[in-house]
């Protein structure tokens, strides 16, 4: 296997994880709860990092299952595996392109917040539906202690793994456990870096920092990345 392939997979994984972390679900709830409960910036960032670790841990656990299954297939299929894995990635890429055409937003919601089916997943100009979803949530209730709010945020993000990174684990199967470890580290670094960055930018007052486009075009970006990665595996991965 060409080392350039692993480098490309790693770069793709970093891009997927970082831009996924830029989606408001990964930082805006922490900022809103922080303001409602009067948390300091340091505490907000610490809670965000804790929840991010849970998010990464569950994604990595799912990735472990994908990697193990991939190892079994690779052992049995040999030279055919890159073609099959590449084909799966191409199909996943086409699926995300279809989602982009259907609206572009990969839906993520706050656990414990009230969401109405008629509401759109996304943001109106100058307004975020997260303010409304969190307004009556247990996360900001005054009678609930900080521990309840922290636990709620942790569970919220942990139970919403980075689905877009899972195909990246499949693309690294032929590099064995070394590939799995490298990709898991990249997932952790990119996710936590993205969450910390956007949480901090909002906390220091850069409220108009435009990240809505990340959410609007997330599906299209994932489609392009997985199509590229699938083609790369087919061409260079055998």
Overall number of strands: 2
Structural class: mainly alpha
Content of β-strand: under 5%
Low-confidence stretches: 108-128
Main beta-sheet annotation: 2 strands, antiparallel
Distance between the termini: 7 Å
Write structural notes for this entry.
This protein is an all-alpha fold and 238 residues long. The protein has one domain. It contains ten helices and two strands. The chain has a two-stranded antiparallel ribbon with strand order 1-2. A hairpin with a 2-residue loop joins strand 1 and strand 2. Helix 1 (3-21) packs parallel to helix 8, helix 3 packs parallel to helix 6 and helix 3 (41-77) runs antiparallel to helix 8. It is elongated. The termini are close together. The relative contact order is 0.25.
Short description:
With 238 residues, this protein is an all-alpha fold.
Please give the structural blueprint:
Blueprint: H1 3-21, H2 28-37, H3 41-77, H4 81-101, E1 123-124, E2 127-128, H5 129-135, H6 146-158, H7 166-171, H8 176-203, H9 212-216, H10 218-236
Antiparallel strand pairs: 1-2
From the structure above, extract its key features.
69% helix, 238 residues, elongated, mainly alpha, 2 strands, single chain, two-stranded antiparallel ribbon
